[in-house]
Design brief:
By secondary structure, the protein is an alpha+beta fold. It has 12 helices and 10 strands. The chain folds into 4 domains: 140 residues, no CATH class; 106 residues, no CATH class; 82 residues, Signal transduction histidine kinase, dimerisation/phosphotransfer (DHp) domain (Helix Hairpins); 68 residues, Histidine kinase-like ATPase, C-terminal domain (Heat Shock Protein 90, 2-Layer Sandwich). It has a 4-stranded antiparallel sheet. Strands 6-5-8-7 form a 4-stranded antiparallel sheet. Strands 9-10 form a two-stranded antiparallel ribbon. It is rod-shaped, with a radius of gyration of 56 Å. The longest helix has 71 residues.
Length: 440
């Protein structure tokens, strides 16, 4: 594999892995922010509903007490006519006149201080009523110039009832005036707030611990849970109990001590899976990268081995050829000692070629991690002597010489003798081969 291409491949794989991790982190942060926004929306809805229900319950309580009070006093209210108007319509076909009458009156009630649970003056409340009357007169008996109050109509239809809208407006005005003067503890209880908040939070799926408190003009009141502590990061507020001017003296604050834990609970499962899968990818990537680097290293060793194999075999083959040529020489063939010397050289070079074959087998073991290069303590001078013997014939063919200087005091070295001899032989052979003059 091309070295540049290999680096580009590793770089791209690394960037891809980093990108996957960054995407996972971005997804987690985005999901957490979305959960936080959804949590805020639900909590705002909850405390809004609770504030509205507290107001409604207080209004209903006083409205119910007021109605019971009206029924229990036995006193007739003071009636006042507020508005009355007429509309006259003549029907010439039937020779009749129709008079429509609409009137609005009020019943005034005086509320005693005992009803208000306070030592103050009595309070007047109004209840509004409406009455609609339809009267039909014969034109022969009806005076066109004025409506005759003593004239009995031929037909009379009367409808009456309470004006709920006006009653509600008048009641709310008086109720808020009464309630604003009362202590907070008498307007709402801890249990009531606890129950309302619990029910509303469960309905919205916010199942986590909460604390609450009511503040008056920025100061804490006695209406609060035992564990309430204000924290801007997990506390939400809403005004409650508005007065007739539309202002709110009180604020309901709700805090969630375990908010972060609750927000993370929805992401724990998918986040753990994401982390596990990411770790698997990292492990697989690291393993693949190690294998890739190792295979590349083995490939380089194989390539170097193939490139050097010809050189490794050329020296012993050349030595054997020279030895055989020398033996054929008439001057040598009759000299038994010289013949044996050259035969020994041929044997040594043959042994060396066998060692090269063993190196080929070692390459296959390299991929299986079975390659074990044994080392032993040997005399380096003897190894060098052995290496020079391998190139003697080549050196003699070039009429060269080798000068040795063995002055080392410590000559034992831990090495692999076969590989070390090959190294020295290659160095000496290259020196002989590429020397322009007689090698010395």
């Amino acid at each position: 594999m091309n070295k540049f291409f290999f680096k580009i491949l590793v770089l791209l794989m690394s960037l891809s892995l980093i990108g996957i991790i960054l995407v996972q982190v971005y997804w987690f942060n985005t999901s957490l922010e979305n959960n936080d926004e959804q949590f805020k929306f639900h909590v705002k809805s909850v405390i809004g509903n609770v504030a509205e229900k507290l107001q409604e319950q207080e209004e209903f309580t006083y409205y119910d007490r007021f109605n019971k009070y009206k029924d229990s006093t036995g006193k007739l209210p003071q009636k006042n006519d507020l508005l009355e108007f007429y509309y006259v319509q003549k029907n010439h076909k039937n020779n009749t006149t129709i008079v429509f009458t609409n009137s609005i009156s009020s019943d005034d009630y005086t509320i005693s201080p005992s009803f208000l649970d306070k030592k103050s003056d009595s309070l007047k409340l109004k209840s509004f009523n409406s009455k609609r009357v339809t009267e039909i007169y014969d034109n022969n008996r009806f005076d066109n110039t004025k409506i005759q109050s003593d004239l009995t109509p031929d037909v009379k239809i009367e409808k009456s009832g309470n004006l709920d809208v006006l009653d509600e407006v008048a009641y709310k005005i008086n109720y808020k005036e009464i309630a604003s003067a009362m202590p907070l503890q008498e307007r709402v209880s801890k249990d009531e707030i606890q129950k309302l908040l619990k029910n509303e939070l469960e309905e919205y799926g916010v199942n986590t611990k909460f604390e609450y408190g009511i503040f008056s003009s920025g100061l804490a009141t006695k209406v609060k849970s035992d564990g309430f502590v204000y924290n801007a990061n997990n506390t939400y507020s809403i005004p409650i109990f508005s007065d007739n001017e539309g202002t709110n003296k009180y604020q309901l604050l709700v805090s969630f001590p375990n908010k972060k834990k609750f927000l993370l609970s929805d992401l724990v499962g998918i986040t753990l899976l994401s982390i596990i899968f990411t770790l698997i990818i990292i492990i697989a990537y690291t393993s693949a990268l190690n294998q890739l680097i190792r295979q590349r290293h083995i490939s380089e060793i194989k390539s170097d081995f193939i490139n050097n194999m010809t050189h490794e075999f050329k020296t012993p083959i050349a030595t054997i050829n020279l030895a055989l040529d020398a033996i054929k020489n008439p001057k040598i063939i009759g000299n038994e000692a010289m013949v044996l010397k050259y035969i020994q050289m041929i044997k040594d070079e043959n042994k060396r070629m066998h060692a090269q074959v063993e190196n080929v087998l070692r390459i296959s073991k390299l991929e299986k991690k079975e390659l074990d290069i044994s080392k032993e303590s040997v005399n380096i001078q003897e190894v060098i002597e052995d290496a020079t013997e391998h190139v003697n014939l080549i050196l003699e063919d070039r009429q060269g010489t080798i000068t040795k200087h063995f002055k080392a005091e410590r000559t034992n070295v831990l090495l692999n003798e076969v590989h070390f001899i090959n190294v020295f032989v290659n160095i000496l052979e290259n020196a002989i081969k590429y020397s322009p003059n007689i090698p010395k």
